[in-house]
Amino acid sequence: MLTVNAYAATSATEPLAPTTIERRDLGPDDVLIDIRFSGICHSDIHTARSEWGPTPYPIVVGHEIAGVVREVGSAVTKFAVGDRVGVGCLVDSCRECDNCRKGLEQYCLKGSTGTYGGVGRDGEPTQGGYSQAIVVAEAFVLRIPDGIELDAAAPLLCAGITTYSPLRHWNAGPGRRVAVIGMGGLGHMAVKLAHAMGAEVTVLSQSLKKREDGLRLGADNYYATSDEETFRELAGSFDLIINTVSATLDMDAYLRLLAVDGTLVNVGAPEKPLSVHAFSLIPARRSFAGSNIGGIAETQEMLDFCAEHGLGAEIEVIPAEKINEAYERVLASDVRYRFVIDASTF
Ligand code: NAP
Ligand code: ZN
Ligand code: ZN
C-alpha cells in the first residue's frame, strides 16, 4: 500500500484539514497516477457538508483529477508510465449491465463506484482527488490530449463532461438556441462547449457582473435573472436550457422560456427539491429532464473535442491550504470559473 498526503473533511461543519490516506496495491489492470491538479466542484462542497444525505467521514473529495502515470499493472495495455491522464467522477461500475455495455457507466444498473464516497474493489471507501496520488482501473482512466494543459484539463473531468453530455444528447448545434443558467464551473464550460458546437448561446446569470467574460467565452447574449424584464423578453425562446445552479430556483419561471418541444435539463443538484407546475410544461409540450456526468467513452470524446477546439477551463490555481477559503468563494458565486488545487501542495 502507498501512503499519500491528502485533505479530508471530518464532519459537515469542520473545515477540511491535512491528513494521510492509503492507496491500494496495484492490481494487474490498475494504473497509479501522480496527481498534478485537482479541481474543486460544487459537488465536493455538497458532499463535504452532507447536503445530499449523510456522508461517510472522514472523506477526501475531488473528482476532477489530472496527472501523470507513475506505474502500471502487469495487464495494463492502454497506458504507459509518463502518460498524461485524467480521472473523473467514476472509478468503476459492473461493466456488464445494459447501460454499462452502452457506455453509460454513470447509469450502471448495479450502481457505479464514485471516485469518492463509494466502496472500491478492495472493499475500502473510495477517496478522491484532493491527494497526491490515486490508483484506478485502466478502464476508468482518460487520456488528456497534448493540446490541453493539465491544470485547465482537470475541470473537464466533471464540469466539462457534465455539460457536454446533455448538450450532445439534446442536439446543441447550428440553428439551436441554448441557454445556460448560472455561470460558475459547469456553466462556463457549457457556454464554451455549446458555442463550439455551433449553437446560439445565452447566459442567464444572477447579475451582469460577468457579462464581458460570458461574451468572451462564446455567449451571444447575456441576461440578468434579477431583472424581471428578462423573463418577459425571453419567454418561449429557447430549444434547450441547461440549469447548472446549485440552489433551488423557481423552475416555472425558467420553463416558460422554452419554445415548443424545448427541454430544460437540470444538472445542478440542490439540497432541496425543485417544484414544477404542470402548466409550465403542458402549453408548449415542454420537457423537464436531468443528466448525470457522462460515460467513459463520451468523456474521452469530450476531451478530444476540447483539444480540437482549443478549449480548457478558466481556472484559478490555489495551494491546498486555501481550499476552505475557495469553498466560501464558490458559495458566494465568486469563482472565475474553477478553483484548481496544485497537488504538489498537499
Ligand atoms: P458553481 O461553480 O458554484 O456554479 C453555480 C452557479 O450557479 C454560480 O456560479 C451562480 O452563477 C449560480 N448560482 C449560485 N447560487 C445561486 C442562487 N441562489 N440563485 C441563482 N443562481 C445561483 O457550481 P458547479 O461546480 O458549477 O456545480 C453546479 C451544480 O451542479 C452543483 O449543485 C453541483 O453539485 C452540480 N453538479 C451536478 C453534476 C451532474 O452530473 N448532474 C455534476 C457536477 C456538478 P451566476 O453568478 O452566474 O448566477
Ligand atoms: Zn463534480
Ligand atoms: Zn453496470
Automatic annotation (TrEMBL):
Matching CDD domains: CAD1
Obligatory cofactor(s): Zn(2+)
EC number of this enzyme: 1.1.1.2
InterPro entries hit by this protein: ADH-like_C, ADH-like_N, ADH_Zn_CS, CAD-like, ER, GroES-like_sf, NAD(P)-bd_dom_sf
Entry-linked PANTHER family: ALDEHYDE REDUCTASE
UniProt similarity note: Belongs to the zinc-containing alcohol dehydrogenase family.
Entry-linked PROSITE patterns: ADH_ZINC
Pfam families attached to this UniProt entry: ADH_N, ADH_zinc_N
Annotated catalysed reactions: a primary alcohol + NADP(+) = an aldehyde + NADPH + H(+)
Domain spans labelled Enoyl reductase (ER): 11-341
Protein's recorded name: alcohol dehydrogenase (NADP(+))
Keyword line: Metal-binding, Oxidoreductase, Zinc
